Each structure stands twice: as C-alpha cells, then as structure tokens.
C-alpha cells in the first residue's frame, strides 16, 4: 500500500492502489472481490496489505469462478454496495461475458435497477504473456450498450478514472495496462480528485496530424512525436481515456484542426475502436479531411508468445513515425 | 410426518392466504394463455402451470425486506411480493405501465422496491446474482435472506455451480430452490443429468439439501421456512429440490408432444390446487363455498388487471433510447 | 536507378514470348543472375536470370500473357519500397499514392475551405503529393491575399499611449459586416428630392404626431403606385413583395437597429405613431424580439434628427431601396414667382440600380413628394 503524499512520484500501479485504498476508506459500501487479492495481495500486488487494513470480508478471495463472482458483484451492487472486481488478467473476463453483457449491461435499461459495479481488467501485451495473458478485450464490450469502458494511460488518469468509475452508478470496466504498471511514473496531488468519465485529454498539442489513441500506445505516440519534430511534423495526441462514452467532440475538434487523422491501438485492427473513430470522422468531419484516415493496430491474430512474433504483432514507434510522415506529405 | 399432519402445522390464516395466491396465479396465467391464443399477446408466454405451490410456498415464507431472485415459472412469487395482475398483463402486452415500461417482455420483471430481482433469459444467471445479494447482507450484517430458483435445466449451467459453491464457501444467507419439472423444453431429465436427484449436488458443494413434493403447498412452505430461518441465523445456504411436473409446453407455443401422455395424466391428479382443496377441506379450514368465493375474487381481480392493461398506452418509439445508463440522482454517488 | 526487364529474344526469328511464371513475388528481392521468371516460346522454355540485384517493384505482364520481344515486362528498383501491401503487420495497409489527377484533385477539406473563403482553386499552387493542393496551400494563399489588401487594421501593433482600443461589440461586428456586404451586393445610386411639409405642419398642430407617421404613409402609398420599390433580388428573378413591412431605423447609444412595422400600409397615422414609438423605445431598452427586426421590405431612416440634410444611406438587404429623411428646416422657396418661407425636407432615396433605373426611382419619389404635400390627412388618421 502507498499513501498519497503531495509531491511524491508514484507508479501507475501505485496510483491504482491509492485509488482503491482512498475509496474504500471514504465509502464503506466499496469492497473488493477477486482471486488471490487477500493475503497474497493480488497477482500484481495492487492490493498488498489491503486485507489487513479492511478485513477479510471487504477484500474477498473468491473461488475460481469469474462468472459466479461477477454475478455476485452484480447482486451486491443492486443491493447498494459498490463492488470492485479484479480480473486477474483481462483475458479471463470472457468467463464472465454472459453476466457482464446480459445482466449488468441491460439491467438498468430493462427495469431501472442501477448496477454500480467496477471490473478491473489488466490488459495489453509486451510482457511475453502469450495469447491468454496479453489480450485487449475492450472491443467485445464496446458493443454492449449499458456498459462504460475506461482505459487510463498515466498515473494521474489511472487514479482519477478509477475513483470516477467507483462513484459512477453504472457498470464500468476499467482497463489498466499491465505494461505500464511499473514503467510509468507521475506526481499526484495529495487531495481527492477524479478524472471525469467521457472526457478525452490532449496529451500533446500539434498542428499537422492527429493521433487518436489510448492505453500504452499513448506513450509510443509521444515518443514518435519527439522524433517527428526533426522532420517539421507536429503530432497532436488525443488520449481517449474513456472508450464508452467516446468524447466525440474532442476527436472532431482535433481533426478539424489538423485535417489528418491516425487511429492507434494495441487491440486487433478489424472492428477495433479505431474503426469506429474512423467511421465517425468520415461521417462528421468529412469536409475537414485533407488526407485519408489511417489506422494503426495489431494484426488480426491472437497475441503470439515468441519474442520476434510479439514484436511483429505490437505496433511500434517506427510504425507511427512512418504513417505520420506519409500522411503529412499527402 | 403424514401429509395432513404437516398441513396442520401451518397457521390457518397463512394457508388461506397462500391458497388465494395459488388460485390467483393459476387464474392470471390461464387468462394470459387465453389472450395469447387469441393473438392479443405477442412474444413468448411461459407459465408455471401445475407448479404454483413452489413459488407461492417459498415467497410466502419470506419477510417484507427479504429478496427473491426468481425465474420464469415463478409467477406466484411475483404476486406474493406485490406485483399486481394489471402490471403483469401490461408487461405481457408491452405497455408503458408494466414494470419494464415495454423494455422487456413476459416474466422478465423486476422491482427493487418490492424486492424482486429481474431475471434474464440465460437460465441460472440469477443464481450468482442472488449469491451477491446475500453477500451484501452479510457484509452489512443485515439479517435479510434471498431465495432464488431455477429449473432442472438451469442446474447444468456453470453459473449454478459457481453460485452454489461461492455461497457455501462463504456461508451466505441464500436459499437455492430447484423446480425440477422433469423437462427442459424437450429435453427429459435423463438427457440433462446423470444423477437421479438434483439434490445430490448440494452435498457436492457442502451445503444441506432436501427433496420436497413440489405440488404440496405446505411442504414447500415449511421447507422454505426452515431454510430461510437457518440462513437468517447465519448458518449458510440450503438447497431444496422440488419434484414436480411441467403440465404445459415449455412455452405456450409448444405442444409438448414429446411428453408421454401417461406422465401428464398421473401428475394431473396431483395438481397443487386440487391437493390444497383436499387438504383444506379435510382439515376443515375451507369448503366449496370458500373455493367458489376465492374463485370469483381472483377472476374479478384478473379481469380488472386485463382491463387496466388493455387501456394502458404503449410506449412510443423514441422511448427506446431512454434508460441505458443510470444517473447519480438514482443512487447516492 | 531502376532496371528495366524486357522480353528477351529467345532465338532468331522469334518475335514474341509468353510469361509462364514469375519466380520472385512482387516487391520481393532478387540478386543478380538469380532466376527472375520463366518464359516460353513455341520453340523453347527458359528461366530468365535477373540482370541486376534489386526489388521487383513493378510487373507489367502477367503469367500467361504473350508479348512481342522487347516489351517492357517489369522493373527493378534498388531501394526497398516501403508501405507495400505485402507487409502484414498492422500498419499501413494501403499505398499512400498521390491521388489520381494530382493537381486537379481537391480533398474535402480543400473544397470546403475554398467555398467558405471564396477561393478560386485554379489560382492556388499545390505542394502536396503529386502536385495536390493541400489545405495548408489554401491557407497560405489566403494569408497572401489578405496581405495584398492593405487595410488600416493591418497595423496591428500594440496600441501606444496616444491610442485607445475599443473592443468590438457583437452589434458593431454585425453592422460592419452587413454594411460592407450590402455595398458589395447592390449597385447603390442616390436620388435627392425636396418636399414641402407645410400641410403636414398645419395638420400636426395640437396633435402628438411626429413627421415620421406621415412619411411612412406617403411611402406606402407610393409603393402601391410603383410596386417594384418593394422587392428583392431573387435567384430566378426580381421578387416583388405584396406585403409592405416598413423598417424604421432607430439610433441606439452604441449602434442601430431597424425594427419593422408590419403591414404599414394598413395602419393609420395614429397607430403608426404608437407603434413606432413603442418599437423605438423597446429597441433602445433591448426588449425587441427577433421577429420584430426581420421581414422588412422597405426602410426609412430618419437621419435629420441632429440636423443632417442629405444622406446616402446603405440599403438594408435583401431590400432594394432605403429612404433617408433629412431635417425639416424652414427655408426660403419660390412659389408663384415669389419668395415664401416653408418648412422643407430633403428626401434621399438610395436604390439598387441592378433592379431599378433612375427613371423608376424618380417616379416613385415624385409620388412620395406629392403625397407628402397634398394629402387629406384627416382621412389617414
């Protein structure tokens, strides 16, 4: 556990841990469920020390039953609790797909009962995890009306969005990128703050090409942006932060300014969120487009294990640089 | 104990109250079936015909602030909890005055204020949810209980096992009913499971289980009451298998020709309302007059409900877009 | 330097050859002397070695095709082509080719910008791929165009101590825009008439009527005589309006508004006076509704309030005329060869010469003058 002290630099992982700790202290309705989150502290140690502080019942070690305990979280949420469920890896969320998409997502729509539930899903690759420990499953849920999906890229956004998710009366899937856990650091304010759900953030302003992205790819885009400055190309990087509901205005504003757009995500290309953004741009910003919309994404395969294969699979800084150069020259 | 003796252990007022609900459930579902056959209801109609004692029995054993997480054969439970016949018919007709305002159909009703969890079509999904409801009670130290139900088919789903397991591990205040009506659509019990009695599964998860005659109102009620008391006392979940028979098809469009005639005839004689009539008469709590009066009463109520529903407005197209997300006003952030 | 691959002569008197099989995929690398393709004639089948090392970037003749000897069948490049389709990794799966038509292709952004700013794209230099006009090119063009038009606003240096900058109000911006636009739209010509207001002055005595209701009355009647003054320039032709909605310019502290008296021809002097007073009051106190400043078909501007005699007012689009009323001043005039002192008023009609000519304008104004000087005003109370 870490305590928030002003001015101290924390990792992305610590920011998530802080958010959980603060929300549990602030609101007795908040409790945690997941595999190995109790004495073990969670597969990634995010809940280390939590059970000692909050007790066995608020930091519940569940049996290996994703469908069962997500369903239970839904029931508890309907009774006024605020459960935060941890998927050990986002890949296992498929076991609970039914409860999430049929029960949680549709509940309020059908009979007006809110489901204030948060599911934390450590997603993304680059950790030699192979097909079942590196997946980006957000695409499956993007298409389920009734769910909110968020994906922070910085410690600040990670803490603020998790708090916002816990306080939201709707089911929220919180995609935390495991590659960023210990690699990204930031200084956080000591006082309570949230990052509103549904608002993107321009992580870098630029005039030439808009890159619409989220998760770990934000950092690759930032790296690419620095390299492109030498070529006189200024990237504007729009970090979506929330996937549903999409901050359409922020996307449009950026592309209306630059006239050129690249969508970038680690998820598979076909039917990924980049596809929806591209369609929206074609529909709403047609008269602002000064070049074709480009999509950078992983190819349509499961995530491979072997290092050269995974390197081929994941989008790289050089991909972004090459695409931006081409688009800028168009 | 002999059946009659067990009936005598239930208070007269309670029995008569439950008897009324048995009749109301039957009358309402018969009327809905008739409307369906007349083409006045669209979509599916699923009744609990011949199984009313189960839902009325378990729902009647609960306190006001307990919760039910029923499934589609449990119309009796909805009525006991206070959903009115008018609301039920409005729901079937897709009217704005139904509990889902037209968003969902048939028995997919829910209302937190009356303690009813709205279930989904995916059978046994309601079981983990019920476990979660019980978890909330345990977390808050409340002495409330939740009863949930599913069919023999529902117990084949992973969610059934995960819910039972989790509830037993954590000793949660949930009672699991199973309406074993011997058919899951056209699938007979023998193709659904390799065990003869579903109750064997209770032991597998480490919770007590019992078999009850699902057509015996008092038996169901007493078994429910015992299990509910146990749960309320913090002694954890119980599994109750109700043996019964599905007298109609899976839904009203299903002629159920796959069910042997003899089986239906055998169970017709064990009709729960017939049995209740016999018991009540034998004990001396009621007679033909009572039955007739109750019959008239429920018929009137059902007719009033149908009239209310038919006069109610349908929702308008754009209402489709309402209610996808909850707002902060609905629950304190 | 690209290397051309041509259909070789595979024997004397052989005039053509058939490409049987390409042994290197398009975009693939081939070394010098490595077999590049299989060719066949009716006499012989041979593998053709590559004349150089490089990448097979272009294939012009497909398998199974027969071409004459010497035909260019493929091309090798030294440098690996990037962004080529056979790169499956999830990046650029399309060629970023310059658009067909190069210079003549305009992207949606370019077309939209040109439309909004009135740019003739043929005048714009294209610096994009294939000579394409990019959005930046249009923006650069616009910047140059603006620089070429010296306006006083271009000295946008910070104001010195001897200057004061008054920020633009929304009303000022609107007036500025509208005035300039009107001048650019209509062909303004002004004709001046003088009217004798003595009859009106006599009639007014003891009554609380200003000159304005009389003027409105005279103008509406003159419009009935010469209806084309109550029209606008339409797409298919000049649209003559049957209803007369009189705009009356009202001076405000920081601008002006033109509230409209609807169906002014149907109202008597008293009612006109009442309405004009009310509209002017509400214009000054900012209590007019949007409908009340829309739909006018002719405008009167009473510029004589501070002593102005003549004016060349700007037409209130989409109308085609506006009449200025100068100060009513006692002047010596000649009547029946003798000098008399009469209250006279100059009327300035600004009209759109696209729609009407001087003769029509003067015809209208002589009617206005006649009505002002010779009306039985009791009838019009």
Summarize the structure.
Chain B is an alpha/beta fold and 333 residues long. Chain B is built from 13 helices and seven strands. In chain B, strands 1-2-3-7-6 form a five-stranded parallel β-sheet, with helices on both faces.
Helix content of chain C: 10-25%
CATH superfamily of the largest domain in chain C: Chloramphenicol acetyltransferase-like domain
Shape field of chain C: rod-shaped
Shape of chain B: globular
**Quaternary arrangement of the chains shown?**
heterotrimer
Tell me the distance between the termini of chain C: 95 Å
Q: Could you name the CATH class of the largest domain in chain C?
A: Alpha Beta
Distance between the termini of chain B: 53 Å
Order of helices and strands of chain C: EEEEEEEEHHHEHHEEEEEEHEEEEH
Rounded mean pLDDT score of chain C = 86
SS class of chain B: alpha/beta
One letter per element, helices H and strands E, the order of chain B comes to HHHEHHHEHEEEHHEHEHHH
Computed over alpha carbons, the radius of gyration of chain B is 19 Å
Determine the CATH topology of chain B.
Rossmann fold
Going by CATH, the architecture of the largest domain in chain C would be 2-Layer Sandwich
**What is the structural class of chain C?**
alpha+beta
Largest sheet of chain C: 7 strands, mixed
Largest interface: A-B, 45 and 50 residues
Write the layout of secondary structure elements.
The complex is a heterotrimer of chains A (330), B (333) and C (381).
Chain A: E1 9-11, H1 12-26, E2 30-34, H2 50-54, E3 59-61, H3 66-78, E4 82-86, H4 97-111, E5 118-123, H5 138-142, E6 148-150, H6 155-167, E7 172-177, E8 185-187, E9 201-204, E10 209-213, H7 217-229, E11 235-239, E12 242-244, H8 248-258, E13 261-268, H9 273-284, E14 294-298, H10 307-313, H11 317-329
Parallel strand pairs in A: 2-3, 2-4, 4-5, 5-7, 6-7, 10-11, 10-13, 13-14
Antiparallel strand pairs in A: 1-8, 6-12, 9-11
Helix pairs in contact in A: 1-6, 3-4, 7-11, 8-9
Chain B: H1 3-8, H2 12-37, H3 52-60, E1 67-69, H4 75-80, H5 85-92, H6 126-140, E2 146-151, H7 158-169, E3 174-180, E4 183-184, E5 187-188, H8 189-192, H9 200-205, E6 209-213, H10 217-232, E7 238-243, H11 261-268, H12 272-283, H13 288-311
Parallel strand pairs in B: 1-2, 2-3, 3-7, 6-7
Antiparallel strand pairs in B: 4-5
Chain C: E1 3-6, E2 16-22, E3 29-30, E4 35-40, E5 45-49, E6 54-59, E7 66-68, E8 72-77, H1 108-117, H2 135-148, H3 170-185, E9 188-196, H4 198-204, H5 211-225, E10 231-233, E11 238-240, E12 246-248, E13 250-252, E14 255-257, E15 260-261, H6 269-284, E16 298-301, E17 321-325, E18 329-335, E19 338-352, H7 358-374
Parallel strand pairs in C: 12-16, 16-17
Antiparallel strand pairs in C: 1-8, 2-4, 2-7, 3-6, 4-5, 6-8, 9-19, 10-11, 12-15, 13-14, 17-19, 18-19
